[in-house]
Amino acid sequence: MYNPPAKSTSEHPTIKLHKLKVARGEIPTPPAVLDSSWLRQTCLDAGADDAGFVRVDSPELKDHLKDIVELLPPTRTLISIVCRMNRDPVRSPARSIANLEFHHVGDKVNDVARSIVSALESMGYRAVNPSMGFPMEVRHFPDIKPWTVSHKPVAVAAGMGHMGIHRNLIHPKFGNFILLGTILTDAEVTTSDKPLDYNPCLSCKLCVSACPVGAIEPDGRFNFSACVTHNYREFLGGFTDWVENIADSKDAAEYRRRVSDSESASMWQSLSFGANYKAAYCMAVCPAGEDVLAPFLNDRSRYLEDVVKPLQNKVETVYVVADSDAEEYVKRRYPHKRIKVVHNGLRPSSVQGFLRGLRQTFQRSHSDGLSATYHFTFTGKESAEATVTIQNRKLTIENGRLGNADLHVTADSASWIGFIRKERNLVWELLTGKIKLRGSPLLLLAFGKCFPS
């Protein structure tokens, strides 16, 4: 039976009890500054293998400040936690073993972070723990990053390590066999940590040699598209491509021609037990870190035989975008691996998403011989101007129309995005004036070859 509350808020029993406890001094006030030694021990007791703290106004976090304060406006401190993974499971050619380790430790990171938030909350502080991985804000995908806080920059700022050439964080002790978590809190701590004064990365380039799609290049460039297309085949964009294969198949026989039985089973497995990485070989072969280094230093030939070559020699399906650098790399470097051409789902739904996505999908080898400046003027639903330059196998994107253009594209934003998503016909859009070109149309074709998806 419903009992209506008291007419006066001040007469509500809970409020009266609260005021009474305040008067008696029974409700503690959190310390103005939290002891960092206590907080570090709390993190370790909760199950973290290491932890560091960084002020929200740290210069290293200036590019991430907006994301941080959107999650918890009064944030003063970010806590970076590290949970170690067992190394040999991650190195196993049987990726079911590797993925089991990723899943277990990922769950542990979230549990540890939640325990730390509970400890802070019990003291009267506010705190939140963004997910280690998934779930994410996938409503933003692919135009905006779906993760709420970038764990790696926070970890670098908190002294937990530095990024290696493979774009994994390398902890000075545990190497890259770690997963990261972050806690945001309004607590101010007595001392903050600083970034390491050296990079644990050995520049051995084993990650370069082990990557099945050539996503990591010797000069340090990272091909995001190659990595996400293969390693994340059963995440986000790869899942979308699989669904579209189902939708486009007229019957079961055609579906089986598009998707093998083992691929269907693998997708079921990812849906049932958590999405599985196809590779992560860059992490598997990395010898950096005090606890990891000895076998590599003691006998490099044996290390190559035991750790690197089993992954290189593995017969497997490698997923690539048609006419991409990755497709050419696999044909040349790993002829024993089966290539399957797919779409990676990196389709923008906005002009800003298109411009951001250019960096993710740029294929350096396919820009050989191209030296051109493109001006883009977008009108209609979204208005924007940008200058894109491709020269010496490098991509530059700037706001506004700068300098002289070899090709000027003026486009209704909806028409352009429809063309990019292959939902509208370019010829029709040109004939109706929704897209206009000033310069050689051949330059638009050359542009498109640099950004397959």
Number of helices: 19
Strand content: 15-25%
Helix content: 25-40%
Overall radius of gyration: 26 Å
How many E-type strands? 13
* Oligomerization status of the protein chains: single chain
- Uncertain stretches: none
Q: Structural class, from secondary structure content?
A: alpha+beta
Question: Number of folding domains?
Answer: 3
Please, what is the average pLDDT?
95
Strand order of the largest sheet: 11-10-9-12-13
Shape: globular
Write up what this structure looks like:
With 453 residues, the chain is an alpha+beta fold. The protein has 19 helices and 13 strands. It has helices at 13-24, 36-45, 65-71, 87-91, 95-122, 151-157, 206-210, 224-230, 236-248, 252-258, 261-273, 281-285, 294-298, 300-312, 325-333, 351-361, 413-420, 426-431, 441-449; strands at residues 50-55, 77-84, 127-128, 162-163, 169-170, 178-185, 317-320, 338-341, 372-379, 384-391, 394-399, 407-412, 435-439. It has a five-stranded mixed β-sheet with strand order 11-10-9-12-13. It has a four-stranded antiparallel β-sheet with strand order 1-2-6-3, sandwiched between helices. A two-stranded antiparallel sheet has the order 4-5. A hairpin with a 2-residue loop joins strand 10 (384-391) and strand 11 (394-399). It is globular, with a radius of gyration of 26 Å.
